[in-house]
Design brief:
- The protein is of the alpha/beta class.
- About 45% of the residues lie in helices and about 15% in strands.
- The chain is elongated and about 70 Å long.
Length: about 375
Amino acid sequence: MAFWRSKKKSDQESLEDPRQAPANDTSHPTDAPPTDAGPVRDQAAGPASAAGSTEQTGPRGAEADRSAGGGLFAKMRGALSKTRQTLNTDIRDLFKAEGRLVDDEFLDELFARLIRTDMGVSSAEAIRDDVGTRLRARVVHMDEVLETITQQTKTMLTQESSGLQFAEQPPTVILVVGVNGSGKTTSIGKLANHLHGTGRRVVLGAGDTFRAAAVEQLTIWAGRIGCDIVTGKPEADPASVAYQTVEKAVDSGADVAIIDTAGRLQTQTNLMQQLEKIRRVVGKKVDGAPHEVLLVLDATAGQNAISQARGFSEAAGCTGIVLAKLDGSAKGGVILPIREQFQLPVKFVGLGEGIDDLAEFDAAAFAKALFEV
């Protein structure tokens, strides 16, 4: 087991290509004996920081988004450009210069086009029926229909809270789960940077010990952000890494511990059992841990993301979703059936490849960015 203390770098290279970072982004690790989910005393621990806040990240995160890159809506609009372009082109084809009568034929055609965003039958039906209720037997133009669709989508996506829930006493322990290739490790780097920017001290745990690239990638993110990281030997017990990450957070007075987990296919029983084990061992070290279990879903996967959510949410007890790679997808509508079927709040959305391209989810901004011409 190794604990690395990292120093923040000023380079703003893309998260998607971590190997471009200088070789001295992190210090050399200090070796510690491997254990099976047992404590390891690490002599490289730094001084404790002040205790973390117990409030949600919502307001503070929203302000940060508005002050950087032209605001949350601008970022959301840019990330949803592929979905919006496909959708608006399809809907525009429904109209003539003089408008279109809202009748059964129009509503059926509208339904077919909504389905193409991977929002699912139920969500598309709800939007179609709302348009029919409000506009039936009227001759309307595209902007009027899009406004109605936007309002209904906002209503369907509205949730009580999208902010992280922090422990009353730090550290807050966050597990991050998801299949390989979903953008899980990159999302952890972005999340750590987001929390670091709010003044919280973060410890990362490289628990995906079966993928050397994941450990390497997360170590580089730690170097850029300026946070600590705990790693294990290749194929070490992920639960052991998780335990020692939480132990490091406790001993060093960190506010948040974020733990990466292995990401095999959701049908593999051994992975599900491993996630359950990790939950048990971190709970032994910190009461109530994990406080958040975030499921990273690849927006480009469309409806396949539904099966991922179902498998992981059952085994890991997920509390929220991070929708990654939104900027690369024309299937941004998949967020609707995810919210409907699992009633899990969408906590964050990935809006690009940069380290700052993670935003707390906002239903109104998302709906507007999805449909506004």
